[in-house]
Structures are given as structure tokens and as C-alpha cells.
């Protein structure tokens, strides 16, 4: 499920030594996609 992926991505982001690098930006983009996916799922179910 998306929430497990989201938790994994957040852990990876927090473990990075540098929060401003390209890897951090890629992880943030993936986290935002999971947020949008969960929001879309909730929208469809009411």
C-alpha cells in the first residue's frame, strides 16, 4: 500500500546526511506523489 511506501521514503529522506541534494529532491518528489495518490483515493471513496 501507498502508506508503507510513504513511510519507507520518509525514513530514507531523514537518513540522508544532506537534505538539499538531488537524492533528497527525488525522494521529496516521490513522497509528494504518494500524498497525492492517497488524497485521490480518499476523494473517490467519499
Can you tell me about this structure?
- This protein is mostly helical and 46 residues long.
- It is 83% helix and 0% strand.
- It is built from 2 helices and no strands.
- It has helices spanning 2-15, 22-45.
- The longest helix has 24 residues, at 22-45.
- The radius of gyration is 12 Å and the shape is elongated.
- The model has no long low-confidence stretch (mean pLDDT 92).
What key phrases describe this protein's structure?
46 residues; mainly alpha
Mind sketching the topology for me?
Blueprint: H1 2-15, H2 22-45
Helix pairs in contact: 1-2
Short description:
Helices cover 83% and strands 0% of the residues.
Q: Calculate Rg over CA atoms.
A: 12 Å
Order of helices and strands: HH
Low-confidence stretches: none
**Main β-sheet: number of strands, strand sense, barrel status?**
none
Q: Mean pLDDT, as a whole number?
A: 92
Name the shape in a single word.
elongated
Number of strands: 0
Strand content: under 5%
Distance N to C terminus? 19 Å
Helix content: over 70%
- Number of helical elements: 2
Overall SS class = mainly alpha
Amino acid at each position: 500500500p501507498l502508506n508503507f511506501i510513504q513511510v519507507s521514503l520518509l525514513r530514507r529522506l531523514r537518513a540522508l546526511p544532506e537534505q538539499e541534494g538531488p537524492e533528497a529532491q527525488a525522494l521529496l518528489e516521490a513522497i509528494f506523489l504518494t500524498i497525492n495518490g492517497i488524497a485521490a483515493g480518499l476523494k473517490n471513496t467519499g
